[in-house]
Amino acid sequence: METRAAVTPPRPDRALATEAVHAGREDLAGLGVHAVPLDLSTTYPSSDSRGEAARLDAFATTGARLDGPPVYGRLDNPTTARFETALARLEGTEAAVAFASGMAALTACLLARSADGLRHVVAVRPLYGCSDHLLTAGLLGTEVTWTDPAGIEDAMRPDTGLVVVETPANPTLAEVDLRAIAHSCGTVPLLADNTFATPVLQRPAESGARVVLHSATKYLGGHGDVLGGVVACDEEFARRLRHVRFATGGVLHPLAGYLLLRGLSTLPVRVRAASATAAVLAARLADDPRVTAVHYPRIGGAMIAFDVAGDPHAVIGGVRLITPAVSLGSVDSLIQHPASISHRIVGADDRRRGGVGDRLLRLSVGLEDVEDLWQDLDGALAASVAPELPARAAAPAG
Ligand SMILES: *Cc1c(COP(=O)(O)O)cnc(C)c1O
């Protein structure tokens, strides 16, 4: 059986690009393999039930990663543990805990706090639509106060367990000053959703965020074929998250752990290449009379949001190369209309208050050639301002 991946200390001497391909894999040569072993076991045989009992007790008491071989797949998995080690190294945190999806990861963070009686959350809009919904609906017994960054200190209560922000935010790409917000949080942990920026562009832990959340489904996986979530944080918070994950079962499938670790190896290259293309497209959109506003983050990145003068639905119907679909962070470009899809679950008033207008489109720029992408956008924008003309010729059937 494969020995579990050791928790390796951060390597400040190594650049992110090096860590992306080596972190979590240092023991492979010693194992005599090159590719990461994929362990699909749900259970692990052991003739030493006294020893297992002691190790289970240790997990129940501390929440530390199991010492020695795994016991059961909901507790720990060696392939997923490699992904966790690698992501923690990229984010510069002590630990990371992986989940079945970004929403499972956020759920675990909320439950970890409310288990300590800290049921109140302070949050800044906009957030990803389902994150907004989870907080607004209070489904997990939490209560939310929405505020702007300047109002965070005043919104705090004795039972505030978490402050939640996204930067750049989904879908408007609004940015907040993490360092200033972390200061306003005092001793309350700041959770920063770093899905859009990725550790390639921003490492929120360095700015004081205690909890860094990812929908790994997006850039970390990077190919639109794996759902996952992960929280990078200090070991103390990670221990609470491992307890919640064990109790509630939102575990990442080992194959997803494998694919996410593989995705990390190309993350810096993908993000930098797509960001360079996005910067060109953002500049062209800003100069285009059919576009009324372009939202492109100060820190850059591969996401663009823009408001159109005409019909946003015609743009969605008009693209031929770009995939009209929700989600983001894939090797191919995707476009969607947040008010219809990603943020549909947020009430219309809250949505507009969060800056998500009805003419806003969100574009996730992939790795296609910039001129091919521009040609496609140009054609779709033409359709958006000429509703009286027949839309671009439909793709041939079949
Ligand atoms: C997609 C997304 C989520 C939710 O992640 P899933 O993997 O879809 O559960 C959370 N935050 C942000 C910013 C997202 O884009």
From TrEMBL:
Cofactor: pyridoxal 5'-phosphate
Keyword vocabulary terms for this entry: Pyridoxal phosphate, Transferase
Annotated SUPFAM superfamilies: PLP-dependent transferases
Protein origin, superkingdom: Bacteria
Pfam families reported for this sequence: Cys_Met_Meta_PP (PF01053)
InterPro entries in the cross-refs: Cys/Met-Metab_PyrdxlP-dep_enz, PyrdxlP-dep_Trfase, PyrdxlP-dep_Trfase_major, PyrdxlP-dep_Trfase_small
Keyword ATP-binding assigned: no
Molecular function as annotated in GO: transferase activity
The keyword Ubl conjugation is assigned to this record: no
Family: Belongs to the trans-sulfuration enzymes family.
PANTHER family: CYSTATHIONINE GAMMA-LYASE-RELATED (PTHR11808:SF85), TRANS-SULFURATION ENZYME FAMILY MEMBER (PTHR11808)
Name of protein: PLP-dependent transferase
Origin species: Actinacidiphila polyblastidii
Record lineage: Bacteria, Bacillati, Actinomycetota, Actinomycetes, Kitasatosporales
